[in-house]
Every structure is written in structure tokens, then in C-alpha cells.
């Protein structure tokens, strides 16, 4: 992929500064990456698998934290969201406060260099963070490999990793996560038609840690 500002921390700091101001003015939590359907898709899968509601869940690059709010509304109780942008965590804290979900834990953390406070998760969820890392102008390949190492260290053996991407195909993601993970399922995503060909604009996969 061509390097992009979308892969840099200054971009996201500025974006969440804007969203934080907008929330304070209007109460709007801002953009939901991949839309509400992407959150419903994740929650449906967890419910279908009868994943215990007290399972420890990590939202990687939580942004405004809305996914965690929805998980809490569906009964999940051990929820942690991390983001390397302090403005994103400030925003997610305000959204959490507005929704009265005080049990959600929110931390300023860089997933590529996680602190000792993070470990032993049974479920890790990523909607777009791996995409953003892949666009980093500074050694994106090395950062993708570090992402996989971080995921291996934070996710328990046999834990689930649910990833949603608009940059990577199923085959490419299988290659990126071939070490330490096995594919369990591809989740259905909206299809589009262009030039008579039907394709998926979004890929959503569930992996299990070996």
C-alpha cells in the first residue's frame, strides 16, 4: 500500500481532537468505522458461539469506544479499549460517561509496544487498526510483524481474534496471520457490484490463537 497520513499518530490525534470538540458541542460520538453493521456482525458471532459474557475482551484502536458500549449493552462485563491517541481515549471516556458504562476500562496504549498491564485476553477485536498500521510511512512491514507479535503476546492460547479490514483480502490476511493463528470463519460482509463483477469491499475474519 502507498504510505498515507492515515497510518500516523498526528493524523489520528488531530481527527480525534475534532471529534472530541464535536462531541462536547453536539453529543455526537462521531464516526463508526465500517458502520453499525460491522459492530452487529461481531456481536452476532460472539452470541452464536455462546462466548461467556465475562470473557476478557480487548478492542484494539478503540477510537470513540462505541463498539465497547454495544458489547456492554449486550451483557459483556470485562471490556478494555486501547488507543495510542490520548484524544481518542478522552472521547471514549466521555461517550462511556454519557452511556453510564463505568465498568469499561479505557487506556492510552500503543498496541505495537503494549505495557505489562495488558495480557491474557480471551478475545481481541480490530476494526481498521491493522489497516491503518499498514499505511504507516515508516517501516509498515516491520510494524505489521510487530502487530502479530503483540497479538500473540496479549491473546490467550485458543483465544479469538476478530478482524475487519477494507485494505486486505481474505487470502492476504491469512498470510499475514499465518504464524500463531488458524482461520475459523469468514463473516459475511456487504457486497458491491462494479463493472459487472461482484466483490466485497470489506473483509471480516475470525482467527483462533494456536
Automatic annotation (TrEMBL):
GO terms for biological process: methylation. The keyword Phosphoprotein does not apply. It catalyses: L-lysyl-[protein] + 3 S-adenosyl-L-methionine = N(6),N(6),N(6)-trimethyl-L-lysyl-[protein] + 3 S-adenosyl-L-homocysteine + 3 H(+). Residues 56-185 form the Methyltransferase domain. Pfam families: Methyltransf_31. GO terms for cellular component: cytoplasm. The keyword Coiled coil does not apply. GO terms for molecular function: protein-lysine N-methyltransferase activity. Keywords: Cytoplasm, Methyltransferase, Nucleus, S-adenosyl-L-methionine, Transferase. PANTHER family: EEF1A LYSINE METHYLTRANSFERASE 2, PROTEIN-LYSINE N-METHYLTRANSFERASE METTL10. This is EFMT2 methyltransferase. It comes from Penelope pileata.
Amino acid at each position: 500500500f502507498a504510505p498515507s497520513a492515515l497510518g500516523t499518530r498526528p493524523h489520528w490525534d488531530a481527527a480525534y481532537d475534532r471529534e472530541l470538540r464535536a462531541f462536547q458541542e453536539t453529543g455526537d460520538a462521531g464516526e463508526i468505522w465500517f458502520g453499525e453493521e460491522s459492530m452487529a456482525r461481531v456481536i452476532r458471532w460472539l452470541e452464536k458461539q455462546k462466548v461467556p459474557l465475562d470473557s476478557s475482551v480487548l478492542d484494539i484502536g478503540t477510537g470513540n469506544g462505541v463498539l465497547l458500549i454495544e458489547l456492554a449493552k449486550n451483557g459483556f462485563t470485562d471490556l478494555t479499549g486501547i488507543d495510542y491517541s490520548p484524544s481518542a481515549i478522552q472521547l471514549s471516556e466521555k461517550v462511556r460517561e454519557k452511556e453510564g458504562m463505568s465498568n469499561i476500562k479505557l487506556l492510552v496504549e500503543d498496541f505495537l509496544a503494549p505495557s505489562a498491564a495488558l495480557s491474557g485476553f480471551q478475545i481481541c477485536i480490530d476494526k481498521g487498526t491493522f489497516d491503518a498500521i499498514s499505511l504507516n510511512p515508516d517501516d509498515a512491514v516491520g510494524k505489521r510483524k510487530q502487530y502479530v507479535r503483540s497479538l500473540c503476546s496479549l491473546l490467550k492460547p485458543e483465544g479469538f481474534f476478530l478482524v475487519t479490514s477494507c485494505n486486505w483480502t481474505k487470502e492476504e490476511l491469512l498470510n499475514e496471520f499465518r504464524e500463531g493463528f488458524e482461520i475459523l470463519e469468514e463473516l459475511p460482509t456487504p457486497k458491491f457490484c462494479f463493472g459487472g463483477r461482484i466483490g466485497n469491499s470489506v473483509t471480516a475474519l475470525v482467527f483462533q490463537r494456536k
